[in-house]
Amino acid sequence: IIYTSGSTGLPKGVGVTHASVVNLVQGCQGLFDFGADDVWTLFHSYAFDFSVWELWGPFSTGGCLVVVSSETRQSLHEYRALLARERVTVLNQTPAAFYQLTAIEREVVEQAPPLSLRYVIFGGEALDLVKLSQWPQTERYADPRFVNMYGITEITVHATHIELERDKLSRMQGSVVGGAVPNTKMYVLDEGLQPVALGGFGELYISGAGLARGYAGRAGLTAQRFIANPYGEPGSRMYRTGDLVRWREDGNLEYLGRADQQVKIRGFRIEPGEIEAVLLGLAGVGQASVQVREVAGEKRLVAYVVGKAGEAMPAVARMKEGLQAQLPEYMVPSSYVELAVFPLTPNGKLDTRALPAPEIVGEEDYRAPVSEHEKLVASLFESLTGASRVGLDDSFFALGGHSLLAMQLVSKVRTQTGVDLPLRALFERPTLASVASLLAQMSAASTETTNKPARPSIRRGQGNVATPKDT
């Protein structure tokens, strides 16, 4: 039984048979040439299904297994040294961990002892082909063979396989996971369990010898996810993965994300992966993750970025400009957090809970608000955007404001001062100084009108009647 985390926070115990493990290691023998000369590492926790492949891969082929200590796992510099020292030939990694190893390898490739890698096998999460191409090439050692394998615990670790040739990486797009491993069948179906046309996206269903028995002690959940297979033998089952994929014209599957990964911000349905893809296309951005965080009482998109080795990280303003050129405004994150490296879980996946909360501050050249109106506008900017410090040159929208918050700002100004700020003016001149200046002008004009003596009222038929010209 291997426990996998659930969206509800309650882990689910997946009951996998020994026969399914044997099917995995023996069925994949024809895809690889593993042998007694190979050296593998046990990098991942044995509570993570990837470890099943790491353990039984070498044990079933007579290879050697190097158990990586927790201290070494936490320092990829030390891990890289271990790979060279132990002459590791088969490396199994989640993409997130490999991207960090790639950054280190680019630094030390010409000085450190050479590697002996024959295979680098990916699993656990979506693989970015652009990042994969950043693995350095050198005359000191041969390029390893890159293999992407998609899978989940419920179908015994791996279900697909594709070898990614370096010279083709630049022409491939998306996270390509390949075709089914032996004794496995893949179905891309719509909500009515009907096959989706080539190129169209649908949910992935998997059948075959790798299917687990179900969830231990949770018959109801098992019945929901392990369902009857209408395309197989009578009595056969298939597993509903919850992953969105599509068949490409070359016959390979492309992973598109989780069916439940869409988020809803201000009524708009958003796929964070689309935003991440655009961020990764910007010069200087090596890794990107877009998360939904609560800021100032509302859900906001926050972009976490790691710089590309050897290149300068673009300024936040440049990143925003790059996103705005390719995405609608509602898909552009309001906050950006630059990190040296992404935090990883013990399983080598991105640890979203360890990502820091965004600190929203204004321009570096800070000019403090001084006047009464400036201080009032500053406090409203801060309360509505969650910013901790707002200066005269800070824009309401650069701090994370949007049209709905702009309407709230106008309403709060009206409540506190009695002045009706034009909403259009806020969009045209959104800096604190501009808004405060306009508020001061309108307040002064309002006071002058209030203090001006009232003209006598004139009623027709009483006393002297003014002519239209006089009026």
Explain this structure.
This protein has 471 residues and is of the alpha+beta class. The chain is 29% helix and 23% strand. It starts with a strand and ends in a 20-residue tail after the last helix.
Which short descriptors sum up this protein?
471 residues, alpha+beta, 14 helices, 20 strands, disordered C terminus
Provide a compact summary of the structure:
The chain has 471 residues and is α+β, with helices and mostly antiparallel strands. Helix content is 29%, strand content 23%. The protein is elongated and about 95 Å long.
Summarize the amount of helix as a percent range.
25-40%
Continuous helix count: 14
What's the total number of strands?
A: 20
- Show unreliable segments: 457-471
Distance separating the two termini:
91 Å
Radius of gyration (Å): 30 Å
| Estimated share of beta-strand residues | 15-25%
Shape: elongated
Largest sheet: 10 strands, mixed
Structural class: alpha+beta
Please tell me the overall pLDDT.
Answer: 85
